[in-house]
Amino acid sequence: MTMLIENTLQLLESSCAPEAMAVLDLDPSELKETASILEDYGIPFSRSIKLMALIALLALARKRHEDVSFSDEQLTRKILDGDYFQSLYVQLAMQFDEMGLVRYLAPRLKKYYISQAMGKLSAEPLHDSLQAYLQAEQAAARKEQAI
Amino acid sequence: MKPTLHEALQIDIKRINREIENIVKYDKDVPRTSVLSHSVLQLIRSGGKRLRPLLVIVGSRFGTAKTGSRFGTAKTGRRQLQLAAAAEFIHAASLIHDDIIDRSDLRRGAPSLHTQTGVAEAVHIGNYMSARVVELLSDFTSDHDRFVHDLSSLATAQLCIGEYEQLQHAFDYDLTLKQYLEKTRCKTAQLMATCLRVGALSTDARPEVADALYRFGESLGMAFQIEDDILDFTATAEMIGKPAGSDLRRGQVTLPVLYALSDPVLAPRIRAIHANSSEEEIEYALQGICVGDALARSQQMRMDYLQQAMQAIELLRGHPAYGQLEVLHQYFGGKTA
Are A39 and A3 in contact (CB under 8 A)? Predict the structure, then answer.
């Protein structure tokens, strides 16, 4: 698990443009939760790194855009970081051939932003969304095999 | 009376506006009477030149898809309209965040969105718009359609990188011309170029045609931004909706500033400007920049980009839609003149 997390962080560091000077301050417990789901679903190591990096980018984007206000000295930086992580998520998903994930998560992510814009603060954890995607993916694969 | 750009391009702007509004109106997850829906529609209806959607549509006229319009070019279909609308949505989302970053209270002459909703809510409304575009573009599922995601990934990431560069180089009077051009390319030119390219690929344009259109759009975008830089010194506040010299006040080292810095007499005046400079100090530097040759040199650079734009589309000269590119060129080239 530690190796998966380390490899994911390395992948993210090398993927972020140097101009972004990205700080990858991810929540270790969220990373572990994601790693454990990927293991449970038997996702190969190389793919797990990519999926974990994509979920991490979404988590970073959410974190940066949380509770922003004019009194925050880091406001500009936070807005840019959040925007950058969101666009990098789509860019890397294309590169990793994981647009299925983007398609699946798109309505969920949108609903998250709708609820945030309307002042409702509850949100589905991202690792739950990933789990739902992997479940749907494996169900589709089983169905295809059955045919 | 001189025709507007969309009239000159014979593009039905009402159809495009309808499609842009439909992105939020037909989103079943957004309550019709919500602040979110109201805010997005208000922003969209507040105007704007719709340059990016127009670029998508013009690009689409260079395809090989046999839908036969009266131009003898590929016809604008639903798909092209959706992409055009998505391009405007991405642009509008970036404006919401830009206004917060710049602490700008006005957008298109009306109170900017965050002044009405609050900063945190406005940030998430911008996020909603970006996420909605990703959702819509996700419907383009085939490998053949991968290019559509350039709008919500590559071009948007570049936009952020341009903003990062701007942030890092605020009041940096040692900025090089190369750095300035790179920032401008990221911040303005690449989204415009991507719009033309995405439009072209949506109607199965040949790769070399799409690439030529990309280069054309990139050069036009560079000229467009340089013009904006020049206008910051020459236009009145009413014309550009912000006080003259706003860029200099915010520490943005634009092309005229860069050229003025090469004048040994003027350079110390400019280098003295910092975040807390007085109005007199700024006015003194502004006057110096306007009197010297910095604006003329910037204008020359702008003309060079306009020329490069025409060179980029030389191979399209015989295409039935070539005249559309000339119209765009005239529009981008004639505004300041």
Answer: no
